[in-house]
Specification:
elongated, transmembrane, two-stranded antiparallel sheet, mainly alpha, transmembrane helix, DUF2905 domain-containing protein
Amino acid sequence: MDSVPKLLIWGGVILIIVGLVWSVGGKFLHLGKLPGDIVVEKENVRFYFPVVTCIVISVALSLGMYIIRWFTK
């Protein structure tokens, strides 16, 4: 099989998995509200920087890419 169709198939599988996690996991995973996320609230201003959430997503994506790369060798 050519590399482009294989890449498109894996991309579709990843999008389906992300969609399922997003729709179902949103009730159980509290991404964006993890300990370590920075929230500063003043009178008229709210500043939010999800540090730990960004790290968790980065590790998950890196692990996913590593697994995909391992399977496509």
